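Risk register update: the risk of archive-format incompatibility is retired. Evidence:
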Amino acid sequence: MMLLIDIGNTMTKICLSNGKNLLMIKKYNTYEISKSFMEDFSHENIDKALICSVKKSKTFTLRNELEKMNIECLEVKKEINISLDSEYDMEAIGPDRLVNIYAAKIIYGSPIVIASIGTAFTVDFVNSSGLHKGGMISAGPNIIMDSLSNSTDTLFKVKLRKTEKLFEKNTDSAINSGILNSYSLFLEGLRQRVPENTKFILTGGFSPMIAMDDATIFPELLFQGLLSAYERR
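Archived output:
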């Protein structure tokens, strides 16, 4: 058995896998995570961990703890090298974006837009020839929420939930609509700027809340990409 570990800026997701299927997914606060999370997987015979991380300091600590437990650690951009035909600066691209693009190309082909809605909002485009043309990076929903509540006296944090409506009739719902629909409206506008047959794949923790017609929602795309990269390494 193996663990697939996605270490994000604020949340870490850990998936148990038999090497083919995603069996169980747990979520943890990145700042608090330590080897104690292994208690959730103590009944499994785990010998390997595949790691994708944007938090270097936390990765170093967690990796040392796992290796002390005789769990082999393979990390994206270190032991796991992912080849991608791209015009982007591959030294600078985040490992999470790299894995998502790689997985989406394998599963869905191209042309394709991969939009990840998490702590950050990232969008990448792969053309019909399979060439990654580049991407965009902006703020995720929680960053926008924090900015609104911290910068004003009358706006506040709300619990985000999926909505099909644009114009709401109370402040709570209007904040929810404004934040989430800013992504769906942006992506609908982007659809007019890419080839007509382009597939849209939405991933990341907030992706199930984004209303967009004819888009594929795949929150755990990164885990599938880790498995594929490991199999093809």
